Amino acid sequence: MLIALASLKASPGVTTAALALAALWPGGQQVLVVEADPAGGDLAARFGMEPKPGLVSLSAAARREHRVQVAFEHAQQLPGGLSVIAAPAAAEQADGALELLTGDGLPLWSNLARDPEVVAVVDCGRLDAGSHAHRIIAAADIALLLARPTLEECDRLAKSLDALAIRAEATNTELGLVLAGPGFDRDQVQANMRMRVWAQLPHDRKAAALLGGATGKRRHLAALALPKAARSLGAELAAHHARADDAEPPAEDMPEAAKGPAPHRVRSAA
Length: 270
Ligand SMILES: Nc1ncnc2c1ncn2[C@@H]1O[C@H](COP(=O)(O)OP(=O)(O)OP(=O)(O)O)[C@@H](O)[C@H]1O
Ligand SMILES: [Mg+2]
Prior knowledge:
Layout: E1 2-7, H1 14-23, E2 30-35, H2 43-47, H3 55-61, H4 68-73, E3 76-77, E4 83-85, H5 91-101, H6 107-114, E5 118-126, H7 133-139, E6 142-147, H8 151-170, E7 174-180, H9 186-192, E8 197-201, H10 205-211, H11 225-247
Parallel strand pairs: 1-5, 1-6, 2-4, 2-5, 6-7, 7-8
Antiparallel strand pairs: 3-4
Helix pairs in contact: 1-11, 3-5
Bound molecules: adenosine-5'-triphosphate (ATP) and magnesium ion.
């Protein structure tokens, strides 16, 4: 399963949410976070990680090799054991790596999406019109846009969603919203958006700091508000994905003409 997270503007907490969702994932799959932010990564600095392995080394390997395990070979482990592929901090390097990973390395993303034993949570950063991350979103089962539930952010979302929905529909990627922090409540936003609002993540400075590499009592992390909300978002996403898979008729029962890529999978780059 491939879950893409992105923002439109204003750093609403995409990287933090990606880590929370992955760290608290409720299923038994292998979980991987990929920092695919064309503006450059933050994880290496936050966790004092070595530059290699990471997004750059993966981008070189994925030109020849698209197996899911290759992604894990280019991950490093955070305290607590979560596998993470960190982007270089410099935008030029991160964007260059993403260009390779969405060119020659493109099949890797569909392979991650298709693997039932794997959950890849991809931090696509801020989604500018020309971002290479659109091609990752095209391969995702679901793409969640994070935004603060403020007037400006909701207005931006409302005016941007149609274009994003057209792209997503073309590639069978489900698009959803996640609100981050206080403001309008979820029901108010949902009433004004034609897209499902999956969660409202609470403002939780303590959990965000721990998820951002601050030293502290990590064993209490799961009891904090943000991780709890991330865990229930993960449970809803997992259940939704299982229902979507169940709804697919087995390929052998399908007429030849109907066979093809499964719903919620993306077959071509947008
Ligand atoms: N739910 C939250 N509650 C409180 N603070 C948060 C929360 N989420 C993120 N933060 C804090 O906000 C800051 C930005 O978070 P983060 O790096 O996750 O945002 P981002 O959307 O990935 O930003 P960028 O677009 O720059 O990559 C960090 O200091 C982080 O600790
Ligand atoms: Mg970020």
